[in-house]
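Box S1 | Example of a co-folding query
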Amino acid sequence: MANINRCYSIEDLNKKARKALPGVVYDYIAGGAEDEITVKRNRDSFSAYEFAPRVLRDVRQIDLSATMLGKAYSMPLFCAPTGMSRLFHYQGEKAVARAAYQANIPYSLSTVSTCSIEEIAALSHGSNFFQIYVWHNRDLVSEFINRCKTCRYDGIILAVDVAVFGNRERDLRNGHGRPLELQIKTALSGLTKLKWFFRFLTSGKLKMANMVDHLPYGGDAQKAIDTVNEQFDASVTWDDAKKLRDKWEGNFILKGIQCVDDAVKAADMGATGIVLSNHGGRQLDFAPPALDILPEVVNAVKGKIEIFIDGGIRRGSDVIKAMALGANGCMIGRPYLYGLAAAGEEGVKKALDILKTEMERVMRLIGCDAIKKLDSSYIKKISSL
Ligand SMILES: Cc1cc2nc3c(=O)[nH]c(=O)nc-3n(C[C@H](O)[C@H](O)[C@H](O)COP(=O)(O)O)c2cc1C
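Box S1 (continued) | Returned holo structure for flavin mononucleotide
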């Protein structure tokens, strides 16, 4: 396991992840669509704000706790759904779910995960959410929802930014989507990272664990990629989303909302939350960063629906800025994946800990002792940017 004691930032964990992983696997995490302009702009969007600190306040005790979707958590963070996590570290999604549970923040499992809805429910008694797509095979989607009911998941997250798969050229060059090539390239590239390669070979076949009974080859992930890609349905509309919403009584969140009009539609259709998200820049290049549209969305729907953002969050200060602008919470993807790749569960804990410590420090330095007290008076848009 990589030594992460001297990792002081998410960027330090990113460097460790890059060292630990074969290039093709690292690219799959870090890469985005086309010229990766949105990946970069997601990050830059946070630099457009500075703080307006208050001084001489008693900030010994900082309360980071936040209520999200009806439950109290230790901080306003949410682990975003990310597929295929066992490719990054043999402990996969289980490590992330355990770390999230221990940190008392919600976890979301991707449909295309390497461990199942039931496995996560068995190991974590924290808040688990399940991310679905409206696939061609609507029966399979209904089956997922029923399994989440049985396993008492806290909510369903419907990804709505996937009419088609994003044009991820790093992955195309690396042979993803072409199973045989993926196997060969991953293996060859893995030879340069022996620790990863040894674990990859000895920890069992990667599986699309939620659909082993539905896919050819028993769900073998690499062979099933084509079958899964064929499931994406470009004809999906708000009516389909509403039908799914009606099948699930609890929290229902639309992830991938990118404009005010759709935020209003989501509230009108009875969703309990939205994630302003461009999928970490992995779908549409030149999609807007969530932070840029947050203020107008807050203006339009705050109080009717909970508003989360993701994309480019790498610092505790990023979370504080989003909360000051009116978000109910923030999702992170790559930050915990870098931790996972660097050091498994310990690495995920480290990522969450770094963000928490940074949040506490920023809160002290801006003179605000509770997340709940944050408002737009604590930040200022830098007009020259
Ligand atoms: C490797 C990887 C896999 C992902 N897989 C999924 C997925 O299966 N479903 C989904 O809705 N979003 C997926 N996402 C997007 C994340 O949920 C989230 O929107 C994004 O990572 C946020 O940006 P950030 O990585 O900059 O924090 C994935 C992201 C990454 C990096």
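Residues 28-29, 42, 80-83, 110, 112, 131, 159, 255, 277, 279-280, 282, 310-313, 332-335, 337 surround flavin mononucleotide (CB under 6 Å). Residues 143 and 303 are 32 Å apart (CA to CA).
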